Amino acid sequence: MALEVVILAAGKGARMKSPLPKVLHTVADMPMLQHVINSAQKLEPVACHVVVGFGGEQVQAQLEQPGVQWVEQTEQLGTGHAVLQALPGIAEDSTVLVLYGDVPLITVETLGELLAKAANGPALLTAVVADPSGYGRIERDQQGAVTGVVEEKDADANQRSINEINTGVLAAPAAQLRRWLPQVENNNKQGEYYLPDILGLAVQEGISVASAQVETEIEVLGVNDRIQLNLVEREFQLRLARRLMSAGVTLADAGRFDVRGQLQCGENVFIDVNAVFIGKVSLGNNVRIGANCVLMDTVLADGVEVKPFSHLEKAEAGEDCVIGPFARLRPATVLEAGAKIGNFVETKKVNIGAGSKVSHLSYVGDCDMGSGVNVGAGTVTCNYDGAHKHKTRIGDKVFIGSNSTLVAPVEIASNGFVAAGSTITKKVAQDELAVSRTRQRNIVGWQRPQKEVDD
Ligand code: UD1
Ligand code: CA
Question: Could you tell me the pTM of the whole model?
Answer without folding.
Answer: 0.94
